[in-house]
Amino acid sequence: MQHIQTPARPLAVRDDNKQVDAKAKRREKPSALCKTPPSLIKNKDGQSYQRGLCLGEGGFARCFQVNTGDGTLYAAKTIAKASLTNEKTRLKLFAEIRIHRSLQHQNVVRYIDCFEDDVNVYILLEICSNSTLMELVRRRKRLLEVEARYYLLQVLAAVNHMHNKLVIHRDLKLGNIFIDSDMNIKIGDFGLAARLESKSQRRYTVCGTPNYISPEVLVRPHEHSFPADIWGIGVILYAMVFGKPPFQEKDVKVIYERIKQHDLVFPDNARVSQSCIELIQWMLEADPAQRPTIDQVLNHRWFAGEFTDVISVSALKGVPHIKVTPEQSRVNFNRAKAACGLASSCSTSPVETVTKEDVATATRPSASRVLPPSLSPPTTKEKYKMVVVQDRPDENINSPAIRRRHQLAPDGNNVGSGQQNWPKAHRMSTERGTGLSRRPTNMANAAAQLVMKAATTKSDPAGPSLRSRGNGGVNSQQFVPGLVREVRGVVHTMRDSAKTYLARVLTAQSQGTLSQLMRDATVFTKPPHITKWADFDEHWGMAYGLSDGAIGMHFRDGTSMRMDPFLGTYMAYEPAAENKTAFVACRTSSSSLNSNRAKKVNVINFVHKYMDERLGRGGMPDRREGQDASDGPFLYNFSRGDFYMMFVLSDGTMQFNFSDHTKIVIYGRGARLFVIDPAQNSTDMSTEDAMTAKPALDLVYKLRIICENL
């Protein structure tokens, strides 16, 4: 919904009192001035961001997904400089940036940086992959009270942090509450937020979103403070359990009138507890002085109800099955309060105010630079390093919060510390390796440069660079022979099937009905798995070795290559121009190569030798005598989590390498698992048997992580 600054009128009028066309009115929004940024956005340090899809649009800005090039995703809130035409709008932007960057809490969308180009100002933010509470409620119609309790606690924790900083959000609503990949919530959009000089100060600007605006904001003298946020939280709770805000109407004037008249009605047919209704009524008291504080909300008897320690991503699509005993609920609630910072005192350091320098900058409409140096300093290189290394630097890996969120074992030795297990470049691992993040030596980097030099001195020096992302596909007619293979559809089908199967088995395990499951009796052939890998992403891509003896390379331009080191044959896999979901496979030898493939053969030969010298040759390959290992599944994609590395092969096989050196290969549409423990003992088993097998490996916990991240 669009932010408002004054109560809306039924019609916009011209001087001649004629109605303004609705389309013309929409074009007046400041966000309409924000044009799509270029495909490559650069900040003041030369850091490049690849612009992706538009994530959404508000009244004042548009938001785009951006990629740093190494796989790190951010959301870029984009404001057109053309909309910052006066001192008031510029100072409003400066205040938003200052407030947001001062709020450092796990339930607040993380502020990364701000910068500008000739056309736009960009606010770089943490990206939340599971949309918003508004989208969740729209899809599900309404949430269970146990879900609402879980989310509301986190909302209260974030708002408590803001209020301790003397900040009022003033626009708390479902659409401004984002859901991250762990199904935790984060509050964002501080465009209407205000900082107070003291707890007794009041604000008088009429602002907010119609369905969520508090009565004291609407009624003169429009005096409001922290209780206005409590009202917004009450509307959010009502909307979660009943499916829509309490005062929702088609006409904005009717909404305002209902709010001012305190026309609060609860549906008779909804199955909502009396304690929940009582808490909503208390938070939606017409008199702000009668509303509860955050501590009083937390001590309300509604929070003594069922409380879960985690919500599965399956809740995005359907009603989750959650059953928690009263004793465990009390434990979960206290742990969640501690994890959110509600069990300890929070920092009350004030937010920076807008400076004289900011005002001077804002009053120079002809200046090409909008952001003052205090908001956009000359260099932010160190800031990026701090952000990328760890998602939540204040959390200890051995804390109960981390173990609960990721469902890992109590022994802290079997997990990593945030993303520190996965450095940006040159990560290496092997089945017998002692670490997940060993960097190649300087000698290796020098050797890599020699390989690149040798590759670029072939007959076609103008051939495409290996650093380029995407080659637009290749024409299958240039290959002899050219075998087109569907890949994307196979991968997506296998992933969805595996996720469904795993979810069914895990649900049966938690409900104690595992013995009643109908097992998949299909006989599946165990596919090859990755035995070692080395990440050369800054140069070429991901190198890997397979259990069938093949060496593979997933190049940065989206192509792949497999080689048989014994026969000296190669198989190139390149996206087909006429079918973007398929790959063209071409068997070749080093004597029949075009210039681009010749470069890649040089690279794959180098990384083969490099991995053999540092990671070992491994055992005997799993293949028939005389079989050419260059033809087979290749690495289609890979990604990193906090405690695992996921590899997806072109045949749909998925492999998860955990930081405790356990490896789980999923195949047979999720019905079969090939498990390698840290001592290199391997077991091929059904997914059902994994629920009780090898308890020391905590397979159930790991499979839950896998299921939620497929």
Automatic annotation (TrEMBL):
It comes from Wickerhamiella sorbophila. This is Serine/threonine-protein kinase. GO terms for cellular component: cytoplasm; kinetochore; nucleus; spindle pole; spindle pole body. GO terms for biological process: mitotic spindle organization. Residues 12-23 have a biased composition (Basic and acidic residues). Residues 49-303 form the Protein kinase domain. It holds the Pfam family Pkinase. Its EC number is 2.7.11.21. Belongs to the protein kinase superfamily. Ser/Thr protein kinase family. CDC5/Polo subfamily. It catalyses: L-threonyl-[protein] + ATP = O-phospho-L-threonyl-[protein] + ADP + H(+). Residues 1-40, 407-426 are annotated as: Disordered. Residues 529-613 form the POLO box domain. One of its GO terms (molecular function) is ATP binding. Keywords: ATP-binding, Kinase, Nucleotide-binding, Repeat, Serine/threonine-protein kinase, Transferase. It is an enzyme of class 2 (transferase). ATP binds at residue 81. The keyword Zinc-finger does not apply.
